Amino acid sequence: MSFTTVLTFPRREKAAERSHTTSLAPDDARRLTALAGRAPRDVHADLGTTFQGLRSDQLDRLREEFGPNRIRRDGPPPAFIQLLKAFTNPFVLILVFLCVVMFATDVLWADDGPSYDGIVLVGSMVLVSVLLRFWQEHRSGRAVAALEKMVTVTATTTRRLDGKVVSGEIPIDELLPGDVVSLAAGDMIPADVRVVRATHLQVNQSMLSGESAPVEKTAAAIHGADARRILDADNLAFMGTSVVSGSATAVVVNTGRRTYFGAMAKCLDNSRPDTEFDVGVRKVSYLLIRLMVVMVPAVFVINGLTKDWSQALLFGVATAVGLTPEMLPLIVTATLAKGALHMSRHKVIVRRLGAIQNFGAMDVLCTDKTGTLTEDRIALADHLDPVGQRSRSTLRLATVNAHFQTGLRNSIDEAVLAAAGKPLSEWIGRNHRLVDEIPFDFTRRRMSVVVEDGGLDLLVTKGAVEEVLALCDSVLANDRTRELNATSRSEIEELVARLNGEGKRVLALARKHVRVNGEGRRDYTSVDESGLTLVGFLTFLDPPKASASSAVAALQAHGTAVKVITGDNELVTEAVCRKAGIEVGTVVDGDRVDRSSDVELAALVGETAVFVKIDPTQKARIVRSLKQCGNTVGFLGDGVNDAPALHAADVGISVDSAADIARESADIVLLEKDLGVLEHGVLEGRRTFGNMLKYVKMTASSNFGNVFTVLVASAMLPFLPMIPLVLLVQNLVYDLAMLALPWDRVDREFLTRPRKWETRSLARYIVSFGPISSIFDIATFALMWFVFAANAPEHAALFQSGWFVESLLTQTLIVHVIRTRRVPFLQSRASVPLLVTTALACVFGLMLPFTGLGGSLGLIPLPWSYFPWLIGILAAYCATTQIAKMLFIRRGWM
């Protein structure tokens, strides 16, 4: 079989156990397990094919039944349809409705000619909001498309066409269940297949299982195969995996979306679940909508009954816009973009802006062990004799074994050679010559090399402890050989158990000298691996990162719990987690996850920090369960087997060296796989959210106060309290000043714990601070009515000018009080950009009534005697708000 492209998964060594639970549909899983239990000669008959492949008359029927061998049959909806769906947000629909009303009042029914100012303002906000949502939802289709591109193009197939047996390459899309395919070293598996002939076949299925070591595949029937542990079936191979060595003939069982690989892609094809950020924004929108539903009709009716209905309608629309934080999309985008830029300087690349807030709100981080807590490299921890003492002889013989082996050299051999160093390896190469090799296989679980050693042949065997120990009848300790009896065997088993308990992988090393009889080639087989002398043990460890413990401690100090979800075994994982400062507690494995109901799992995930022997679907289920418990969940992964969990998390985190589909499914990509890098991202996410929350709190409470004031004024005044267009200008000037919020400082105490959208707290904030502004607005009304005699329709312009200046200045200056829990200016000062923009907004508000632009809007110059009163009102308002804020904090509401 040949392919025009290859999978783009990086070759990463990762100590892991094999996957346990399939993500396949039940029927597809049963189909595979049933065929796994059949003898090779019966597989063809069960699939309706022959040893020579499918017949011509079967092809059309199978194509119609199963379709093409593709991951996804239907493409994503057209971009135009996705764009239309972006308008379904209720917040957007209300703004669109207001645009329509404004078009009717300002253009169609305008007495003084059409005006497009308000329409352009609100319409721009609608456009930005829609485009942002469209871009975010468009990513789901791109993730699936990236998965499709990984799959190779052609496969070598045998078919019986028109009575003739034809073997050749066909496009992978055309493979059908029952096709007979040939596999060789370097090939990718084109579908889920049943192996019917195998010669030393070894398959790398790490992209599905997370296990780096190749898996041996055979043709023998497996009785009692478990559909929940489908990847463990040794006579089945799966789409997207690769042949490391050997050759085979296999029959296609499942194709396209029915494959294990396709089942993983199917979960990505669904729309991404709402994240905590999405839910929070929606709750805020609904809160503001409820306020509008109550306030706007009341303003309209009151003004309509007491004044002109057309003016009342226009004023009602302006009030609705005033209550809506229409700059929210721009503020959010600018804040997130600034956060993304800052995070990029700390090796954190943001692929989806909305994930930044989720990053800051993240209170649970789920991560793999390998490469995150560890260095992601196998290192030789020690070379010991049978009694546990470090032995140079053990290292020398291990180097002989690794140096001369000609098979697939894995990370263990590389670790031995690295520990031995170049001088020792070169010395061994000069003083020994390879005689023969007995390659590794998964039945023997060992490999041996035979080299010349003086006048003798030296056989050196390395492998699993129990397998090698069973072949030994003596041990070498303290340069003396003694019999391997029951006592010494028990001592050795205790030593190995202790080493395993330290989280180390242990291999045994044994030797035997063979006397040479005659010249010529000497052939050795596994029969010669007997009567061995145990030389010692090699212990291997994926070293913990030096920064792991400090990074975990920093994340925990900032309120983010770290949970480890790995495919590795319990002992190794426990040892690494303890060194990283993670309190292990009870360890839960994949089998227990499978046995747990949703309710049981919800209780389990809350109290468990370490999960072992976990497969892709179990990872995603754990993440979803954590989310259902109210957590904001981040998941850090880098393989195809991590894609479902990345997709399910509030914030998916991957690395730049990850598999393509993992990067495409992620919201955040790290340029360095290190939890220390994550800490910077978490803090920046909280800083970003803090600035966004400032805008919502300030604007919503201020606008609520303004609307409450408008209700009072509408009922008491014989004229409109403010010109509708001036109300829109005031809103615009304030919002433009707030565009500097992304560059504002955030109090250190705000960064100490995860921050989420809390609609109840926000509502309490609005109804507490909004009326305070109304009190001072009404005080301004009294000032203009009684002191400046603006108490008749002919003096409406003076009244409206006075309230405009006071309203804009109080709304702008109060930003400095609300933006911090501390005393403004004394204990906390805004950033320079925010100081500048708010100052400019205040200057604009003070000057507008004195300009020609203000006159064209209906404003008039204010008397100089007005400004001392204004200063008093501003000072009293700021002091009152500061006192209210302190009470709010004392009650724990802020």
Strand order of the largest sheet: 8-23-22-21-9-18-20-19
Shape by Cα distribution? elongated
- Give the uncertain stretches in residue-range form: 1-22, 143-148
The span between the termini is: 65 Å
Q: How many strands, what sense, and barrel or not for the largest sheet?
A: 8 strands, mixed
SS strand fraction: 15-25%
Q: Report mean pLDDT, rounded to a whole number.
A: 81
Kindly state the number of beta strands: 23
Radius of gyration (Å) = 36 Å
Instruction: Provide the structure class.
Output: alpha/beta
| SS element count, helices | 32
Overall helicity: 40-55%
Structural account:
- The protein is α/β, with parallel strands linked by helices and 894 residues long.
- Helices cover 50% and strands 16% of the residues.
- It is built from 32 helices and 23 strands.
- The strands form 3 sheets. Strands 8-23-22-21-9-18-20-19 form an 8-stranded mixed sheet, sandwiched between helices. Strands 10, 11, 12, 13, 14, 15, 16 and 17 form an 8-stranded mixed sheet that branches. Strands 1, 2, 3, 4, 5, 6 and 7 form a 7-stranded antiparallel sheet that branches.
- The longest helix has 42 residues, at 675-716.
- The two termini are 65 Å apart.
- Residues 1-22 and 143-148 have low confidence and may be disordered.
Key words describing this protein structure:
894 residues, eight-stranded mixed sheet, 32 helices, 50% helix, 16% strand, disordered N terminus
